[in-house]
């Protein structure tokens, strides 16, 4: 019998008393130490464009938000940020943008080749749903990893939050990415309106079934310029329980303490690192643009200068007796 079937995960997700929560987080912490060790992995994030043609109901970058000033970094600006990431001895760069149909696949392939020819650094892409041939072009150009969050594995809920998008195409993308040999990452938002504990339990089983290399779990945070404006934000304890159970069930996956988890009034990334997380993602988007990548409001550290996050990661690690990889 599987110890962690949907029913049991749902029960654990409903735990409320402090003692049980502490035990759960401690168990996740033990599993984390045993399978991925104490060192925290850093991923240097560059949000290179906030143009997006999609209408995800929870996201401030959605195409209907006409009040948002849009930007796209030049290749030189991106390479400058990559050089700062390399100088900080970070071994992975994450190139992220909204899902822009105007993004020319050849342009991104050229950028990947430039980065790989100059630095010994892994390149992670996060630019959304694309045809298989684009994923292949980028893989052949040297890309190593790809992040595509499923947001929720509940097909009905997914379709209700993604106007004009199709859950099956999302799965097709994830299958293509895995088939092409990318280290593939996914993830969910916790606290989405209409999401149940059973649905989150199924998300955790979905992560196990797909055997993702990285899984991002963050709270839903409502944005004023979206159809979900005014809805309640995800509960931090529910995010931490989901993170802890994902660690216990998946064991080896890399789990970031997400920036969204650090943006709930207090910086809960430390709690995330103590409940199973082992990755931090310092932001290297050039300072003037950082604040325009507003997926949700009150995002953490958007006024810091470019690269200022990297040393801060060292202090977070030291505060809990961990090291940076
Ligand atoms: S979540 Fe991604 S695809 Fe959806 S609106 Fe935001 S940036 Fe665009």
3D architecture notes:
- The protein has 325 residues and is α/β, with parallel strands linked by helices.
- It has a single domain (6-324), classed as Aldolase class I (TIM Barrel, Alpha-Beta Barrel).
- Helices cover 41% and strands 13% of the residues.
- It contains twelve helices and nine strands.
- The chain has helices at residues 6-13, 18-36, 75-87, 105-118, 132-141, 155-161, 167-179, 197-210, 236-250, 269-273, 287-290, 309-319, and strands at residues 39-42, 44-49, 92-97, 122-126, 145-147, 183-190, 214-219, 279-280, 323-324.
- A six-stranded parallel β-sheet has the order 2-3-4-5-6-7. A three-stranded parallel β-sheet has the order 8-1-9, covered by helices on one side.
- Helix 3 (75-87) links the parallel strand 2 and strand 3.
- Helix 4 (105-118) runs parallel beside helix 5 (132-141).
- It binds iron/sulfur cluster.
- Iron/sulfur cluster binds at residues 52, 54, 56, 59, 61-62, 98-99, 128, 295.
The coarse overall form would be globular
Strand sequence of the main sheet, in spatial order?
A: 2-3-4-5-6-7
- The number of E-state strands comes to 9
Strand and helix order: HHEEHEHEHEHHEHEHHEHHE
Largest sheet report: 6 strands, parallel
CATH first level: Alpha Beta
Write the layout of secondary structure elements.
Blueprint: H1 6-13, H2 18-36, E1 39-42, E2 44-49, H3 75-87, E3 92-97, H4 105-118, E4 122-126, H5 132-141, E5 145-147, H6 155-161, H7 167-179, E6 183-190, H8 197-210, E7 214-219, H9 236-250, H10 269-273, E8 279-280, H11 287-290, H12 309-319, E9 323-324
Parallel strand pairs: 1-8, 1-9, 2-3, 3-4, 4-5, 5-6, 6-7
Helix pairs in contact: 1-8, 2-9, 4-5, 8-9
